[in-house]
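Table S2 (continued). Query chain:
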Amino acid sequence: MRIWALSDLHVSHPDNRGVLDGFPALPDDWLILAGDVTHGTERLDRCLERLTRKFRQVVWVPGNHELWTVPKAAPALRGVALYARLVRIARSHGVLTPEDPYPVVEHPDGPVLIAPLFLLYDYSFRPPHVRRDDVVRWARETGAVCGDELLLHPDPFPDRDSWCAARCEDAEARLASYPADLPKILVNHYPLEEEHAVLPRIPRFTPWCGTRRTRGWHRRYNACAVVYGHLHIRGTQWLDGVPFHEVSLGYPKQWDRGRGVGAYLQEVTPDRRDAGSRRRGAQNPPTRRAVG
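Corresponding output:
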């Protein structure tokens, strides 16, 4: 039994629609989908139906694209109502979501908890001199803008900041309810650490990339690995001895279709050392383990 992760399939893009055909069949393994599979409830339904045929278990967290309310799309759900609809779709295929009990997986290296998180962002990934009320204008000064400003609605919350705060508080309570010494794989669409939200080509896009509320969660909750996407910059970084895997596939120009999607699956291997040992240990070099 192995655990694989991938995000940002963006199957709604015409040139990425064949992505699902290239997934290898790994019926003994788990697949983590870290958001932005597609936008549109019907497309997500079709994607999950196909992927659950190929893996023993699929775990999904939403990205911002799943939460888009696209004009003229049906049903025209927004915010929490749309998220609830996405959860119902995932559950209809046996997919685990952030609303389900966190599963404890009997991995060959020992038991590990997988925590699918839906935390959003609150624009706090910004320089100290930029006020919250000015952050969108500040980003637009260099052409950085996120479609969420038009398509991702927080209803019934007054703003995305409030929705993010509620999601983080809920996740903190749930994570704290599990044994502290149980290793955990934290899964979120957005990076948990601000220092990982680095986008050289669009540096002012960071306000849409996470929240400072999650700083240090990998230490607080004994994470043996963290999985995220959103940035479209694949790779593994190490912090306090914990691997942080950015697992985006990305838009068509950001991956090589000749290699096949299986080459981009990231294996997530639990680090069995306790949190203190990981912090004291050497920083391991970046690694990627691919299928095929």
